[in-house]
């Protein structure tokens, strides 16, 4: 630690410069932690009821279309009305759906279909919250601090996904699903406080009312924005072929052992990498060529996912395994190696996210930022759902290790090919942002 300069650590100026941003960041971090409790609890509960990896994957798939519609329409709302009010209303829907999950668990009347329906409502409303908050951030901070704000959001992701899944696994195993959902209900009040104390944030420039014309206007801008389009495509590739989350319950149950705790720890590994890459993100904010940074980060991500698939293959072959692999007798060696590669993947994904978010917030005009952030959130949240379908389906047809192993190769190759064909993306300069 003594050899590290102060400039290597995360830039905390956004929290000092803008108290509204600081309050929103704190509220988002606490509510995001609770949200992760619910996400993991629903996955574990569906697997507990069905004993089927494909059923777990379908949680994400079922919410894909509603989330896309909500994200796009939410972006239009954010470009037409006070963004503070839009975020508060959407957050209220998220809170109600979570409260209903808790109520069903306490009364012991939950079914797989209820879990699907409420998860869909939750993810759709949350996509509106995320799109609106992202459009709010550039209004609270100067442009030069946007990379630091994105890195702070990486800390948020790190904390909520690092602690949330592990805590969810422990809570489900020790206290049950009802307490896990209830804690999320309580933590969400911090988000309401962060949003409520924001100033009024109405969009600047020409306002287009939500509807077909607003959608056409956003699409017309996107057609003129090759750098934004390509970063969307690259993220879709990474999340489609490199998102093994839906496999984790089965990995913990039948391949590496450890049950729900393994599921939580492996999910948290992504966040450990994101947290530490944000903690030491000082040099990231000084890089000007964000397109090149996105390319390299996603290829590192692909390599880490490939290596994770190789670890699962080793588990399939019985390497380092105890006599019986189950919830009480895990393959600790391979779990530890898998966690390392997943942490590397999380770090690489976070670096890519910092550059992608900064590009979105600095290169897109405020009048259209909500709609483009809506598309951005659809890509960020929709990609993993397509990835869940890819991983769950392919694992059902082949083996648990095959989807990440193949996906890593696909990511490395496709990303290199696409960026090579678009030299302007590699040359993108943060000092002169061009969408």
TrEMBL record:
Gene3D superfamilies with a match to the protein in the record: MFS general substrate transporter like domains (1.20.1250.20)
Its membrane topology: Multi-pass membrane protein
UniProt-annotated location(s): Cell inner membrane
Transmembrane segments: 21-47, 53-73, 85-107, 113-136, 148-173, 179-198, 232-255, 261-280, 300-320, 332-355, 375-395, 401-419
Source taxon at top rank: Bacteria
Domain named Major facilitator superfamily (MFS) profile: residues: 183-435
GO molecular function, one term: transmembrane transporter activity
Gene Ontology CC terms, in alphabetical order: plasma membrane
Keyword set, alphabetical order: Cell membrane, Membrane, Transmembrane, Transmembrane helix, Transport
Entries under PANTHER family matching the protein: ENTEROBACTIN EXPORTER ENTS, INTEGRAL MEMBRANE EFFLUX PROTEIN-RELATED
Record's protein name: MFS transporter
């Amino acid at each position: 630690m003594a050899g590290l300069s102060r400039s290597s650590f995360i830039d905390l100026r956004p929290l000092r410069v803008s108290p509204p941003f600081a309050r929103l960041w704190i509220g988002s971090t606490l509510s995001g932690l609770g949200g992760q409790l619910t996400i993991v609890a629903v996955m574990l509960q569906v697997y507990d009821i069905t004993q089927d990896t494909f059923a777990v994957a379908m949680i994400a798939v079922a919410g894909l279309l509603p989330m896309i519609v909500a994200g796009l329409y939410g972006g239009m709302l954010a470009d037409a009305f006070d963004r503070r009010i839009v975020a508060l209303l959407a957050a209220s829907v998220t809170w109600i759906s979570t409260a209903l999950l808790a109520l069903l668990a306490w009364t012991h009347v939950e079914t797989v279909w209820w879990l699907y329906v409420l998860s869909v409502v939750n993810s759709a409303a949350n996509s509106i919250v995320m799109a609106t908050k992202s459009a709010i951030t550039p209004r609270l901070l100067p442009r030069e601090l946007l990379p630091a704000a994105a890195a702070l959001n990486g800390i948020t992701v790190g904390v909520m996904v690092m602690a949330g899944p592990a805590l969810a696994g422990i809570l489900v195993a020790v206290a049950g699903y009802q307490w896990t959902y209830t804690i999320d209900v309580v933590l969400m009040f911090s988000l309401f406080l962060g949003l409520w104390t924001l100033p009024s944030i109405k969009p600047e420039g020409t306002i287009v009312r939500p509807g077909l014309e607003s959608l056409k206007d956003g699409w017309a801008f996107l057609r003129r924005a090759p750098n934004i389009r390509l970063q969307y495509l690259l993220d879709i590739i990474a999340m489609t072929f490199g998102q093994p989350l839906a496999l984790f319950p089965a990995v913990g149950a039948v391949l590496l052992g450890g049950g729900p705790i393994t599921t939580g720890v492996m999910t948290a590994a992504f966040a450990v990498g994101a947290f530490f890459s944000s903690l030491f993100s000082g040099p990231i904010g000084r890089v000007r060529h964000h397109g090149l940074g996105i390319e390299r980060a996603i290829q590192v991500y692909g390599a880490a996912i490939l290596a994770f698939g190789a670890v699962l293959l080793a588990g399939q072959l019985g390497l380092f395994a105890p006599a019986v692999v189950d919830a009480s007798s895990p393959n600790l060696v391979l779990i530890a190696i898998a966690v390392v590669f997943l942490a590397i993947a999380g770090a690489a994904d976070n670096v890519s996210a910092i550059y992608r978010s900064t590009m979105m917030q600095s290169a897109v005009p405020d009048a259209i930022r909500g709609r483009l952030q809506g598309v951005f959130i659809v890509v960020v949240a929709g990609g993993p759902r397509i990835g869940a379908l890819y991983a769950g389906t392919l694992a059902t047809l082949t083996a648990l290790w095959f989807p990440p192993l193949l996906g890593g190769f696909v990511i490395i190759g496709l990303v290199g090919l696409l960026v090579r064909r678009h030299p302007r993306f590699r040359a993108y300069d943060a000092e002169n942002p061009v969408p």
